[in-house]
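=== RUN LOG ===
request id: a7f3
mode: sequence -> structure
chains: 1
length: 470
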Amino acid sequence: MSNFGKFILAGLAFLLITGCNGNPDDLPGLLYIRVTHASPDTPVVSVEITGFISTMDSSLLGPLGTLTLPAVDYKQSSGLRPVRVGNTTVKIEAIIPDGNVVVADLSFAETEDINYEIMLIGKWGDPDFEALQFDNPRTNVPAGNFRVQIVHAAPDVGEDIIVYITTPGAALDSGQQIAFAGNTGQIEFPAGEYQIRIALASDAMTPVFDTNLGTPPEGVDLLIAAVTNTGAGSAPISVILLDGTGTPNERLDDGTPADVRFVHTLPDDPDTLDIIIENDDPPGTEIVSGLAFAAFTDYLNPALEPETYNFKFVDSATGTMEVINRDVTIEAGVAYTMIAAGLFANAPGGAVVDAVVDDNRRVATEAKFRLLHSSNAADAVDVYLAAQGDEISEDNRVLSGFTIQGNSGYGSIAAGPYELTVTQAGDTADVLIDAQPITLADGGIYTTILIDSAPGVLPLQLILMDDFAP
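=== RESULT ===
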């Protein structure tokens, strides 16, 4: 495993338990705890729950243990976890490159048959940043109903919200106002199809978020957190639905588009590219004109609606010579960097589009750094990220054998000045990029693309994007 892997936080495979779905069949002596990460700029956290019941059957509680969830990211949850009354602690620790920080260390010795909610809310370092706690009794949902509780966990809106839960298309007659860190309490609705709309208190009749909830199953007991939208689109809020399992279901505003930008890394002709998209309406729309080699665009404005598009990259000089032709499906709320890569001279099929997903959530305690490999002249390379003035070594090698169309993913890096060096794989003397100085800041997002300077010619060069760009 490369050192870069130490910075990259892998996806978490939760140990799922069966959700109560509002119809608990509980053994005595238990309470249930759920930890949810709803702070938009707080890093990934680890969660440790002691007093956890590892197994249960109809006659005997399993042994007490410690459940450790090493990487709970924003908008993720532990799910409801059974613990024994009087033997429970919960520790939440922020994963920070230059030293982790405990953000909550809690003890529980309360009564059984309670769901205890612990939700990280607010922005890192702000006065309202906290591990919010509230609880609900574990009771059955009446037959033919489902239950909902909504929490205001979206600090960036800066004011109270008004929540409307109605049948689809119903008038906004009356909603419930919620202050930040407040909630609606548990509300029961007859089974059926519903719509959630959320407005700001300063303009209560103009929703800033609107989504169809669908038809929740009878008996389900939903906790819904209104959180800061850190993805594509202008809606300031998205919501996460928690049903007791460890996998929240995020719902975006129904009008959420996709963000798309383009990069030209083809070192041979043509020098500049026009980009045309085709779908049903309108056909053959030019969205980028004259994109030069080693240049990149901003995200398109207006953004693209989520669907499948045919992207044509053509020579700007002729307007007709087609370099790349590819269908790409883009999804709501997702940001993409589409890289024109390869060599046109190797046609057909020599030039390709590499569609890379971006993560634009800023984290207050780290820089997010990513490297993409789009060079034809270099195959496998090693990458070093050293403190300025340090020699390259195994200790600061962050990628080994990194190959073309490779994507490092985002590394969590401590802020500071660095030197980026790229060598041929396994040969520190064969330097392709020599000690490129870069400076990373907490809260920053940085993308670097390794490209040719000319077809098949060394040394290489770097495209510096996101917060590297002026």
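=== NOTES ===
The longest helix spans residues 4-7.
The radius of gyration is 25 Å.
=== END ===
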